[in-house]
Specification:
With 116 residues, the protein is mostly helical. Helix content is 71%, strand content 0%. The protein is elongated.
C-alpha cells in the first residue's frame, strides 16, 4: 500500500486491525523522517509528498483514538477457513470419542435399571 495516496482512505483503514495500523503508522513516520532529511539536504523532489504523509499519519492517529474512545468499531478478526483434509481428520478423531461416550451412556442406564 502506498502511503500518501488515495488508497489510504479512512474506509480502508477501518478494515485494518490495531497491530496493522501501528505498523502503517511506523512506516509513515519513517517515510516522513526520510522526506524531512531529503528536504534539509536539498534532495527532495516532491514537496507535496511531505504534506500527504503528514495527513496519512493524522488519519491513522484519528482511527486509533476513535477506537480507544469506542467511537469506531474494531474489525472482528477473520478466521482462516480450514482445509477439508483437516476437517476430515478432525471428524475421524471426534468419531471414536463420540462412540466411546455413547458406549458409556447405555452402560450407565443399565446400572440404573438394575437398581430398580
Amino acid at each position: 500500500m502506498a502511503i500518501g495516496s488515495k488508497e489510504l482512505a479512512p474506509a480502508e483503514l477501518d478494515t485494518f486491525e490495531d497491530e496493522r495500523l501501528v505498523d502503517e503508522l511506523k512506516k509513515a513516520k519513517e517515510e516522513l523522517f526520510n522526506l524531512r532529511f531529503q528536504a534539509a539536504t536539498g534532495q527532495l523532489e516532491s514537496h507535496g509528498r511531505l504534506r500527504a504523509v503528514k495527513r496519512d499519519i493524522a488519519r491513522i492517529y484519528t482511527i486509533i483514538r476513535e477506537r480507544e474512545l469506542g467511537l469506531r468499531a474494531t474489525p472482528a478478526p477473520i478466521e482462516a477457513p480450514e482445509k477439508p483434509a483437516k476437517k476430515a481428520a478432525k471428524a475421524k478423531t471426534e468419531a471414536p470419542a463420540e462412540a466411546a461416550a455413547e458406549a458409556e451412556k447405555p452402560a450407565a442406564s443399565d446400572k440404573s435399571e438394575e437398581k430398580n
